[in-house]
Automatic annotation (TrEMBL):
Lineage per the UniProt record: Bacteria, Pseudomonadati, Campylobacterota, Epsilonproteobacteria, Campylobacterales
Protein's organism: Sulfurimonas hongkongensis
Recorded GO CC terms: cytoplasm
CDD domains to which the protein is assigned, alphabetical: NAD_synthase
GO terms (BP aspect): NAD+ biosynthetic process
Protein's job: Catalyzes the ATP-dependent amidation of deamido-NAD to form NAD. Uses ammonia as a nitrogen source.
GO molecular function: ATP binding; glutaminase activity; metal ion binding; NAD+ synthase (glutamine-hydrolyzing) activity; NAD+ synthase activity
Keyword ATP-binding attached: yes
Name this polypeptide is given: NH(3)-dependent NAD(+) synthetase
Amino acid sequence: MNKYAHITEYLKGFLKAEVSKRGFKKVLVGLSGGLDSAVVAVIAHRVFKDELLCVKMPSQYSSQNSLIDADTLCNDFSIRAITASIEPMLSAYEELNPDMDKLRIGNFSSRMRMATIFDISARENALVLGTSNKSELMLGYGTIYGDLACAINPIGDLYKSEIYKLAKYLGVPKAIIDKAPSADLWEGQSDEDDLGYTYAKIDSALRLLVDERLSKEDILKKDIDKEMLEMLIKRVSNNSFKTEMPKIAKMV
Ligand SMILES: Nc1ncnc2c1ncn2[C@@H]1O[C@H](COP(=O)(O)OP(=O)(O)OC[C@H]2O[C@@H]([n+]3cccc(C(=O)O)c3)[C@H](O)[C@@H]2O)[C@@H](O)[C@H]1O
Ligand SMILES: Nc1ncnc2c1ncn2[C@@H]1O[C@H](COP(=O)(O)OP(=O)(O)OP(=O)(O)O)[C@@H](O)[C@H]1O
Ligand SMILES: [Mg+2]
């Protein structure tokens, strides 16, 4: 069996077991029009069919292409979807806080989406599926208690470069595969511009650092850019809190 066919079957089994173990039948996916949520939606649809509901949550900063790409995916795969705009909440908060920079607006947008989809999860008696990949999780490239929040994440152990291959295998529309990954939190945002390097380069180094646990010295012998490696080591260490539970004071 092809590697990505095998991964798909494994993730279908994982989702089925984990959702049923928690006593649920329905799942939600926040659908942005980007690659990660498209892959999660297509795999979840194979398992849950009409018990999957995708939630599109545009803001005034979402690009028009993202909205079109999300609709194309839903049409191609007959996936159920609703729209819940975060624009009114975001505008109201921005009016009260006119000094916010784009990073704060972006993180606030991400948390408004989290609040919205978790409210819908209560209404629908459904679980929220996560869409953060391993590259993002390792680098802390996501908003804590925002897009990182979920009940179950099927793609958190797959690097972005693997998500591309999985998307191709699943038949995700070409427009979604071909466009640059973007958090779409402000106009023109691009993951690879924010991070400074392509995911192909980042993932090659992360594999050596995280999976093979090689030392910095040994990684540098393998033709990896020194500045990038130093950035990655710093990010992995500084952002590890994003994948941990809050520390609780133990009474002694
Ligand atoms: N050591 C520590 N232990 C526990 N908590 C710690 C902490 N250091 C900071 N914090 C807390 O964490 C906050 C900072 O983290 P956070 O709020 O996440 O924000 P931050 O890491 O500053 O920014 C999030 C990054 O992820 C990107 N992003 C966001 C959303 C979606 C996507 C996407 O790809 O779709 C990408 C975004 O563009 C930005 O580069 C601090 O304000 C503080 O409250
Ligand atoms: N407009 C939106 N509507 C619904 N959900 C969204 C929206 N924007 C972001 N999200 C949620 O936040 C997640 C994080 O965004 P991120 O950009 O990392 O993933 P993506 O858009 O699915 O893929 P890509 O990284 O290729 O752009 C999305 O997968 C999605 O679940
Ligand atoms: Mg995106």
